[in-house]
Amino acid sequence: MKLTRRLFGQVFLGTAGVAAGYYTEKVLQNSFMLKAQAVENKSLGDSVRAKPHLSKNKQPYRIDVHHHILPSVYTDALVSIGQSTSGGVQFPAWSLEAALALIDRQGIATAITSISSPGIYFGDVAFTRDLARRCNEFSAELVREYPQRFGALALLPMPDVDAALSELEYALDTLKLDGIILLASYGNQYLGDPEFDTLFAELNRRRSVVLLHPTIPPGSDVPKLNLPPFIVEFVFDTTRAVTNLIYSGTLERYPDFSLIVSHAGGAVPYIAGRIAGAVNDVPALRELAPQGAIAYLKRLYYDTAISATPYAFAALQELVEPSQILFGSDYPYLSEESVASTIRGINSFDGFDAETRVAIERNNSLRLFPRLQGASSSAENFSTSTS
């Protein structure tokens, strides 16, 4: 059975994060309950007013590697345990209809979808395993119904590595999802923790694509800042994880998986020299990262979500080749106007020529997701004006 626009899901409105509205369930062939989301919500008002970047006579061509979904199967479960925020702000409203309209208006041929912070682990291992499976099955059905418009990255029930390995096998071999999303940290453990080594060995064996996404890190509530954690703490959660992956030896041991770092790498490009120079003062680190930190950083991929500015691009361009930069929108946590601003930022940056812009917006991602080769048209006749 198909996803249809006749199905309505819940909408999260108001500061209390209380679920409002209703939803209709429909049984699919794999026997799980798929719930599409409501279209009517306040955030869409701003989206409709956002200036489209795609003219009506042009086909979309961009590939968005950082595109989130918030299906009812996920949000209902989290609300049931008192969780309704991500990065210190309420979950935005999400619907399939709104997502399809957004990618059409903004010239996105395919959105590689993921469910990110706050993730699915809140101390209950059984809850985490069950929710990972249900979310991954939702994502798989979404891709089956719209194989050229959507891809999907699987959730793993971390920090339970055995359960994560089992779900990894199911998600990639049975559901045929496109890759994996991992949070930078799980509780007080960062990626690169020795307990996670078996998982990275399997990701490496499979040559998997992994999106590293930040969350609210341990201890972030110690500084008394009246700021949502996504503004600053997400940046440093990412930076800690990348640095730990280098100096735990993980990136040296496992060179064959592809790692996409969210938000242009957090603070990594700016402090790359500091990270690399640590071996001069802590010589033991050199044994764990014998190629030098810069070599590992150069092989990672970096998306443009919340980062399409001259400040971020200038630092990133000094660190990596354009081949390592990928278009990412961060929708729906970013409004459509912000997505359009990201596109304008890429197209107006003086350091990118036309060929590089097309590579960032599409061709670089095709190397990671080759099944999308036929998705929409090439960029030859697509308008990349910044007006």
Task: Walk me through the structure.
The chain has 387 residues and is an alpha/beta fold. The chain has a single domain, classed as Metal-dependent hydrolases (TIM Barrel). It has 14 helices and 16 strands. The strands form 5 sheets. The chain has an 8-stranded parallel sheet with strand order 5-8-9-10-13-14-15-16. The chain has a two-stranded antiparallel sheet with strand order 1-2. A hairpin with a 2-residue loop joins strand 6 and strand 7. Helix 4 packs parallel to helix 5. The longest helix has 21 residues. The radius of gyration is 20 Å and the shape is globular. The termini are far apart.
Topology of this structure?
Blueprint: E1 11-13, E2 18-20, E3 26-27, E4 33-34, H1 42-49, E5 62-68, H2 72-80, E6 85-86, E7 89-90, H3 96-105, E8 108-114, H4 125-145, E9 150-154, H5 161-174, E10 179-183, E11 185-186, E12 189-190, H6 197-206, E13 209-213, H7 229-247, H8 250-253, E14 258-261, H9 268-281, H10 284-288, H11 293-299, E15 301-303, H12 310-319, E16 325-326, H13 336-348, H14 354-368
Parallel strand pairs: 5-8, 8-9, 9-10, 10-13, 13-14, 14-15, 15-16
Antiparallel strand pairs: 1-2, 3-4, 6-7, 11-12
Helix pairs in contact: 4-5
